[in-house]
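Note to self: keep these together.
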Amino acid sequence: MTHITATPRVTVRGLIIDQGEILGFQHRPTADYYALPGGGVDYLETLEEAMVREMEEETGITPVVGGLRFVHQLCIDDSRGQCHLLEFFYLIENGAAYRAIDWAAASHAYEVHDAQWISLQNPQHRLLPSFVIPSLRQSLTSHGPEMHVSRT
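Structure:
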């Protein structure tokens, strides 16, 4: 059952980049896509605090949270119900540290079925949201966040 509220669910996502690749997580074995690590912002938690907590929970590694790269608003109204997300995507500055994740140190490792490094130039896996890889190719040299709105 989908929980419907009058306000959007606020989430944070980590852009973990190293050697021209971005880290994506597959959360279900049947999923045909990978997603960026992250999750919901708790009550009275700042976006940056949520980013640190989510990354530590999912990977056991404390991130160096860099700049805000993207803001994504997602509005879905389909047969599963309504969903309204407001996502904040932060660059994680210590991307190389995530090449050696100790899954035993991650309290929420059970949420990750598979982890893959996905090439930014020649992606071998589908990464959602779909705007991330093309936008990263352009935005890593810019300094301001971008806004993306999806309605399906």
